[in-house]
């Protein structure tokens, strides 16, 4: 019978066969350790006391600081800032805050925080991400007066190139309207001048016609006077 075919309940627990467990421990220590861990997981055995862990005493050994940590602790100005921002007397109501430091000097903020961890002011856990500026929206609202001029509903939104297009169309439309008004004024003035010229010409023709009629009347009167003189 292979070792793997033996159920854990036969090796460990209340009804276990101690001799079989001893043989497995002698013949295959790795398999025995694996099966024992499974038995503890399944509740066949109580977990081993922590003091039986060979690495248990290591947690009480003095913590050895790394070269990087020693260099941080040797930097007096840096330690002063660590106390300033993370110490017991750190201020949270002023303008010179950790958040501001992280935003304006992200690299120095990381060193100050590492120094504060080394001095035990804060726990070594992931730092909050540096706040990033909010992305600006690509949409802009066209001003009401420009919406009215372009025939758009008020509150109309477009991107920057669309806004420039709206402004250009408004400008070109206004220029075209102004040019049409100037052309209409020039045409009206031309018509007025032509009408004045026509009126002047008709008056001169009437004067000439009147002068011709009067001359004929005078000539006829003179002719009658001559005839009367010859008969007398």
Give a structural overview.
α2 packs across α3 (29-42), α5 (76-86) crosses α7 and α6 crosses α7 (106-118). Helix content is 63%, strand content 2%. The protein has a two-stranded antiparallel sheet with strand order 1-2. It has 232 residues and is an all-alpha fold. The protein contains nine helices and two strands, in the order αααααααβαβα. The radius of gyration is 56 Å and the shape is elongated. The model has no long low-confidence stretch (mean pLDDT 80). It folds into three domains: 3-60, no CATH class; 67-118, no CATH class; 157-229.
List its salient traits.
two-stranded antiparallel ribbon, mainly alpha, 2 strands, 2% strand, 232 residues, 63% helix, elongated
């Amino acid at each position: 019978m292979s070792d793997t075919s033996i159920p854990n309940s036969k090796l460990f627990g209340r009804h276990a066969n101690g001799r079989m467990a001893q043989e497995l421990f002698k013949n295959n220590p790795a398999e025995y350790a694996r099966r024992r861990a499974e038995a503890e997981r399944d509740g066949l055995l109580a977990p081993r006391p922590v003091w039986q862990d060979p690495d248990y005493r290591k947690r009480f050994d003095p913590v050895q600081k790394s070269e990087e940590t020693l260099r941080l602790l040797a930097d007096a100005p840096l330690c002063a800032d660590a106390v300033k921002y993370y110490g017991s007397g750190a201020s949270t109501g002023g303008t010179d805050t950790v958040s501001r430091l992280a935003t304006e000097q992200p690299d120095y903020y990381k060193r100050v925080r590492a120094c504060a961890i080394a001095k035990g002011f804060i726990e070594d856990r992931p730092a909050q991400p540096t706040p990033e500026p909010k992305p600006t929206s690509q949409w802009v609202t066209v001003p009401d007066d420009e919406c009215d001029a372009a025939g758009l509903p008020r509150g109309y939104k477009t991107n920057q190139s669309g806004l420039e297009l709206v402004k250009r169309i408004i400008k070109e439309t206004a220029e075209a309207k102004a040019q049409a008004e100037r052309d209409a004024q020039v045409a009206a003035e031309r018509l007025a001048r032509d009408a004045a010229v026509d009126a002047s010409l008709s008056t001169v023709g009437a004067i000439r016609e009147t002068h011709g009629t009067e001359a004929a009347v005078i000539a006829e009167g003179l002719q009658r006077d001559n005839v009367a003189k010859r008969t007398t």
